[in-house]
Amino acid sequence: MLFWVIAAILTLGASLAVLLPLTGGMKGASPAGDHDLEVYRDQLSELDRDMARGLIQPGEAEEARAEIGRRILRLSAAMQPGAATPRSARGARWVASVAVLAVPLLSWGLYGMLGSPDLPSQPLAERLAKNPADSSVDELVARAEAHLAANPSDGKGWDVLAPIYLRLQRFPDAVTAYRNAISLDGDSAVRQSGLGEAIASAAGGIVSADAQKAFEAALKLDPANAKANFYLGVGLAQEGKKAEAVTAWQKMLGQLAPDSPWRSAVQQALAEAGAPAVAGAAPANGPDAQQVEAARQMSPQDRQAMIETMVAGLDDKLKQNPRDEEGWMRLIRSYVVLGKADQARAALGRAVAAFGADSEQARKFTAFAASLGVTATE
C-alpha cells in the first residue's frame, strides 16, 4: 500500500509541474504584450530621430511608421479585456493537458496488468541469500565479501574468492585474498603461484622480487607447477637473461601434458624470444644457455642442421630406451615442427607399439599427436 501512495504523490507532482504552466498561459500574455508595445513605441521614436538626422527618406519613414502603427493596433486589440484567445492556442493547450493526464493513467493501467505491484522489495541482504545458480557474478562476489567481512578468519572463503578476484582483474584484492588464505589455511603450490600471478599482474606484468619469491615457494611444494615455472621464465627474460629463459621454457614444454593450457603460452613465449620450440626435444637435460646462444648466432641452414642432428640423437636414444614417454612426445612434436609429417606418424606408431595399443600411454600419444595434426596410419 505504501508503494501506491508514494507512486500517486510522485505522479501528481510531476503532472502538476507540467500542467500549471499550461493553465497560466493567459496570465502571462498581458505582461508580454506590454513589453511588445514599449518596443514599438521605441521604434517610432528611433524612426523620428533617424529622419531628423537625414538617415532615412521621408517617404520610407512614413511607410515604416504606418507598419508600426498597424502592429500597435493589432496588439492593442489582443490586449483588450475579454479578448478571445486564439483558437489554435486554446487547442494546443487542451491537447497538451490531455496528453499530460493520459501518460500516468496509461502507465498505471499497463503496470497493473503487466507488472508485479504485489512483489515485495528485495534488499541486498535478501538478494545475496538467493540460490547461487540464480545470482550474477557481482552478487556472488558481494555475498562472499559480506561473509568474509563478518568472518575474516574463514581461510576457505578467502581461498575461493582469490582466483575470482584474479579473473575479474581486481589484482590488489586478489593479492590480499591469497595472503589471507595462506596465512589462515597454510601454504600450497596453487595459492603461492596464484599470489605470484596476482602480484605480477598488479605491477603491470612485471615479475618483481615479491612475485618471484611466491613462485619459488610454489615450486618447493610442487616442482611441476606450470604457472610458477612459466612466470619465473618471464622474470628471467625481463632481467635480460633471455637464454636462461628460453632454456627454462623449453624444458617446461618437454614436461607439460599434451592437453596442458600452458603449452600455447610457452610456445608463444619461445616464438617471441626467437627460439625454436623443437630445441626442447634435445636429450633429456636439454641444451644449456651457451648452446642456445651459439644456435642463435648460426646461419639458418646451420641451425636447421643442428636441430635435425639433435632430433636424430633423440630418435636413437628412444630406440635404446623405448619406455620414455616424454621422449616420444618430444620426438613427435620435433618432426611436426620440422615439417616431416611422415616421420612424425612413424614415431607415433613406434611409441604406441612400445607400450601396447591398448595402454593408457598409447591413448595419450594418440591424443597428443592428434592435437598436432598427426594421425596414426591405418
By secondary-structure content and strand pairing, the structural class works out as: mainly alpha
Number of strand elements:
0
**Rg, Å, rounded:** 42 Å
Give the H and E element order: HHHHHHHHHHHHHHHHHH
Helix content: over 70%
Report the portion of residues in β strands: under 5%
**Main beta sheet, described?**
none
Written description of the protein model:
This protein is an all-alpha fold. It has 18 helices and no strands. Helix 12 packs antiparallel against helix 13. InterPro entries: C-type_cytochrome_biogenesis (IPR051263), Cyt_c_biogenesis_CcmI (IPR017560), TPR-like_helical_dom_sf (IPR011990), TPR_CcmH_CycH (IPR056413), TPR_rpt (IPR019734). It holds the Pfam family TPR_CcmH_CycH. Keywords: Cytochrome c-type biogenesis, Repeat, TPR repeat.
Which secondary structure elements does this structure contain, and how are they paired or packed?
Layout: H1 2-23, H2 29-52, H3 58-78, H4 87-114, H5 124-128, H6 137-150, H7 155-167, H8 171-185, H9 189-202, H10 209-221, H11 226-238, H12 242-255, H13 262-272, H14 289-297, H15 300-320, H16 325-337, H17 341-355, H18 360-371
Helix pairs in contact: 1-4, 2-3, 6-7, 7-8, 7-9, 8-9, 9-10, 10-11, 11-12, 11-13, 12-13, 12-14, 15-16, 16-17, 16-18, 17-18
